[in-house]
């Protein structure tokens, strides 16, 4: 599996292997071919807490797995290629469940042009049925540059 998180992005204090694997899966699925396909969006939504999971990109927000699937399909309908690269992760709290993630993204559009920009994300991790889950992913990016 390709890693879209630079090794130097991880803080030394981030020692929870399950949470690290969860983040790796999230970014691999975010960059998966055929964005907007039911299978890739369902797999990504499974990473979220089933009831209280929140996904927000700029001003667009969804809560719950079905809503997350529908929002992502709508958001990325005209962007067939995405490549997110995580360049730095900061942790907060004793349990390292609150993260600030910094990265770069490159989008390939249906019309053939490419755009790129920096982004930041607030991520809150939780546990559901003994498994690590995403409770919240709030992405801050200048969406105007990607039109």
Automatic annotation (TrEMBL):
Name it.
SnoaL-like domain-containing protein
Name the species this protein comes from: Coniella lustricola
């Amino acid at each position: 599996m390709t890693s879209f998180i630079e090794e130097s992005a991880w803080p030394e204090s981030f020692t929870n292997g399950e949470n690290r694997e969860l983040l790796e899966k999230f970014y691999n699925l975010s960059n998966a071919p055929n964005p907007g396909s039911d299978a890739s969006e369902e797999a990504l939504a499974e990473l979220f807490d089933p009831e209280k999971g929140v996904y927000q990109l700029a001003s667009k927000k969804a809560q719950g797995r079905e809503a997350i699937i529908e929002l992502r399909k709508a958001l990325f309908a005209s962007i067939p290629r995405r490549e997110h690269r995580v360049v730095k992760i900061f942790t907060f709290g004793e349990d390292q469940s609150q993260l600030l993630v910094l990265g770069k993204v490159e989008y390939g559009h249906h019309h053939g042009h490419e755009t790129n920009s920096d982004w930041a994300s607030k991520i809150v991790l939780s546990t559901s049925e003994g498994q690590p889950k995403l409770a919240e992913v709030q992405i801050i990016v200048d969406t105007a540059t990607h039109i």
